[in-house]
Structure formats: C-alpha cells, structure tokens
C-alpha cells in the first residue's frame, strides 16, 4: 500500500501529560491545532485513511522534543472529536513519562507511538522518501508530479524558524503550495489528500 505521510511541527505544544482536556486551545501551547491535523489526516466520512501516517513534533515545555506518530493502518480508538484525540496524546505522554522514556520509539496505544525525536531526527528517519515542504509561496501542487509515498512537512500557526527551515530544505525535493492564500495547517492536509485522491495515488 502506498503511504502518505504528514509531518507537523507544533512549536509551543506542551510535552507533559499535565494538561486539562477542557482547555485545549489555552494552556497546551495550541495542541488544538495539531489535533485538527489528526482529524484532517485520517477521517473520511465513514472510515479512517489506513494509508496515512502523521507525525506531530511537539516542541513546547517542559520536555521537548516529543514526537507522536499516528499510523493509520494500526490505529484504533480514534474518534473525530478533538477531546478524545487529546486523550490519546495525553496517554502517550504519560506512557513516555511513566516508562522513563529512553532512546526508542514506544507504542502507547494501537497505532499511536511516542519518541523523543525532533524535526531533524524525524526527517532523517524518513530518508529514502520524497519530502515536500508545504509553504504558501511554493510551486502549485496541482501542476507537480508527486513521487510515490510522499512526505509533506508543515508548520503550525507559527512559521518555521530559519534554523528549522534549513533542516527541512536539506531534505525537501520541492516547496509546494496548495493555495495562493495562507491557510490553516489542517486545511492544507485536506487539500493534499484531495489532490492525491483525484490522481488515485
Ligand atoms: C497558518 S500557516 C503558518 C503561518 C502563516 N505563514 C502566517 O504568516 O501567519 C500554517 C502552515 O500551513 C502551511 N500552509 C499554509 N498555507 C499554505 C499554502 N497556501 N500552501 C502550502 N502550505 C501552506 C505552511 O506549512 C504553514 O506554515
């Protein structure tokens, strides 16, 4: 099965499980933005996209970086509401903390993995795959040839720092745009899916 991968950086997203599920947009460093990306990456009307994988790179306090990887082909217990996805994220952060962390990625629940990888580690781990950097001023996705098993890298509501951009550009084949307008990250994911769905790749 071909795989579509999205990598999203949450610059201030909390990296401890001590957050309130009733205040996701407030005290979590905008975890809500990343939760909407989970929804856009995986949900069809009555199904889950099993061919999709999503990395959420969380760089906020107190223990950055943490990366939570959602693997569509194994995912269970994922529901469309942000609160229950936040509970999966919180559980992953708890499993990491209670297990003492370590160097390796660990499985927190079916299809949900956590590690201490940062942006450069994640992109290195995907070496061999074709990486596309999603940016407003990139080449129009509609007119681009997209390689098999593509990886799309996006930022949250904050732009990449110069340092981060250097890392992304080291791995990216192209800078790609999905609209002449600056869109929300989760909406970009939907547009990428739509374009690839139409091409049936
Ligand atoms: C809300 S935007 C980031 C902030 C925005 N650059 C600003 O000036 O406020 C979120 C992310 O979605 C992606 N993005 C937004 N609009 C896009 C577009 N038209 N084409 C491709 N990617 C886009 C980029 O990765 C961007 O970093």
What does this structure look like?
- This protein has a single domain, classed as Alpha/beta knot, CATH 3.40.1280.
- The chain is of the alpha/beta class.
- The mean pLDDT is 96.
- It starts with a strand and ends with a helix.
- β1, α1 and β2 form a beta-alpha-beta unit.
- The relative contact order is 0.19.
- Strands 4-5-3-2-1-7-6-8 form an eight-stranded mixed β-sheet, with helices on both faces.
- The chain has five helices and eight strands; from the N terminus they run βαββαββαββαβα.
- The structure holds S-adenosylmethionine.
- S-adenosylmethionine binds next to β6, β7 and α5.
Structural class: alpha/beta
Strand content is: 15-25%
Give the names of the bound compounds. S-adenosylmethionine
User: What would you say the CATH architecture is?
Assistant: 3-Layer(aba) Sandwich
Count of extended strands: 8
Strand order of the largest sheet: 4-5-3-2-1-7-6-8
Would you identify the regions where 5 or more consecutive residues have pLDDT less than 50? Answer: none
Chain-averaged pLDDT: 96
Q: The CATH topology, please?
A: Alpha/beta knot
Distance between the termini: 10 Å
Query: How many structurally independent domains?
Result: 1
Order of helix and strand elements from N to C terminus: EHEEHEEHEEHEH
The largest sheet, given as strand count, sense and whether it forms a barrel, is:
8 strands, mixed
Given the C-alpha coordinates, what overall shape results?
globular
Radius of gyration: 16 Å
Number of helices: 5
């Amino acid at each position: 099965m071909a795989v579509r991968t999205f990598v999203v950086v949450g610059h201030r997203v909390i990296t401890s499980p001590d957050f309130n599920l009733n205040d996701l947009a407030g005290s979590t460093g905008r975890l809500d933005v990343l939760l909407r990306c989970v929804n856009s990456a995986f949900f069809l009307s009555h199904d889950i996209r099993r061919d999709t994988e999503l990395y959420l790179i969380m760089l906020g306090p107190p223990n950055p970086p943490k990366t939570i990887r959602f693997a569509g082909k194994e995912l269970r217990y994922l529901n469309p509401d942000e609160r229950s996805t936040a509970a999966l994220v919180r559980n992953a952060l708890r499993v990491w903390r209670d297990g003492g962390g370590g160097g390796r990625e660990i499985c927190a629940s079916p299809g949900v993995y956590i590690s201490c990888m940062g942006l450069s580690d994640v992109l290195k781990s995907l070496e061999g795959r074709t990486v596309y950097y999603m940016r407003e001023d990139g080449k129009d996705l509609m007119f681009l040839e997209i390689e098999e098993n593509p990886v799309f890298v996006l930022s949250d509501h904050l732009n990449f720092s110069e340092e981060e951009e250097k890392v992304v550009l080291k791995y990216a084949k192209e800078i790609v745009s999905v609209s002449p307008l600056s869109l929300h990250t989760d909406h970009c994911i939907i547009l990428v899916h739509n374009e690839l769905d139409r091409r049936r790749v």
